[in-house]
Specification:
The chain contains ten helices and nine strands. The chain has about 290 residues and is α+β, with helices and mostly antiparallel strands. The N terminus is likely disordered.
């Protein structure tokens, strides 16, 4: 009886150990974008080559890793990307974002908003009201133009340059308030500033009584898939006030991005993967206006 129980215990331990080893292999492969050999993997996770090989063979059979025969290197497989992509539905994103938005609203005293691109507009996916006596905020599901909203500017700035040019070629820069940017060259200058700072500002450009600051949210692919923002009444929230709240905003964006699989140090500000190599234009931006005050 005792020996039988010991054998059962060993089976359980062996199963758990195999899972742990498999996840260790996953992590090591994921950290090697150029692929990794069996010898390197074995050394990195502390397994002998035979054990690692048999685990990798099983993982390959299910499509979770890919073995490139040329070069004999292992890569993350398509099945794992499909699993990750299926977890990115809007409902699941809202579930992940909602508690972070609540904490952001409490920390800043203003409304926290999460938005994503839909066609030519930015759509509010989730929000949490601040604790101030007076709040102006976007309704969930509401579509907003990209060129005059903080979140929209962040999402535009994240687009590849050629894709952005195609996007703007058929886009109307319509005025919504006296502050709305209606000139393409001016907008491109603003987007360059967003890429450099990682922050987008809306200085009463869509709603005459609303100011907003936003930054990007990244997922496991390393791409900007949405934007997190803090917004509040213009009479209460100056550009300098937005700037101060932006530090907290970037920390919460890092937290949300981490929940979506983006490598991010806990408690640190999010660094966005923007291309800042070639600015489109030089000119005055909202950041410049703020510095001049």
């Amino acid at each position: 009886m005792t020996s039988e129980k010991s054998r059962e215990t060993e089976k359980v331990r062996g199963g758990v150990q195999s899972l742990g080893r498999a996840f260790g292999l996953f992590q090591a492969i994921a950290e090697s974008p150029d692929g990794i050999s069996l010898t390197q993997l074995s050394r990195k996770v502390g397994l002998n080559s035979s054990t690692a090989f048999h685990l990798l063979k099983t993982m390959s059979a299910f499509g979770y890793i890919r073995h490139a025969k040329e070069g004999k290197r292992y890569f993350i497989g398509s099945a794992l990307f499909c699993l990750a992509a299926s977890a990115r539905s809007e409902v699941q994103l809202i579930g992940v974002a909602s508690p972070i938005l609540r904490d952001l609203a409490v920390a800043t005293g203003n409304t926290g908003v999460f938005g994503m691109h839909s066609g030519s507009e930015m759509v509010v996916v989730a929000k949490s009201e601040g604790n101030g006596a007076f709040q102006i905020s976007d309704r969930v599901g509401g579509a907003r133009p990209s060129h005059c909203t903080a979140m929209g500017k962040v999402l535009l700035a994240a687009m590849p340059r050629d894709a952005l040019d195609r996007y703007l070629s058929g886009y109307e820069l319509r005025a919504h308030t006296p502050n709305t940017i209606t000139d393409k060259a001016h907008l491109m200058t603003e987007l360059d500033a967003v890429r450099l700072s990682g922050l987008g500002f809306d200085d009463a450009e869509f709603h005459p009584e609303l100011r907003c600051v936003a930054t990007g949210v990244c997922d496991f692919t390393g791409q900007v898939i949405g934007a997190l923002a803090v917004s509040g009444p213009a009479w209460r929230l100056s550009l300098q006030g937005l700037r101060e709240k932006s530090m907290l905003l970037q920390v919460f964006a890092g937290r949300l991005s981490g929940e979506l699989g983006y490598p991010q140090a806990e408690g640190s500000s999010l660094r966005l993967p923007f291309d800042t190599a070639t600015p489109h234009h030089k000119g005055i931006t909202h950041l410049d206006k703020e510095r001049s005050k």
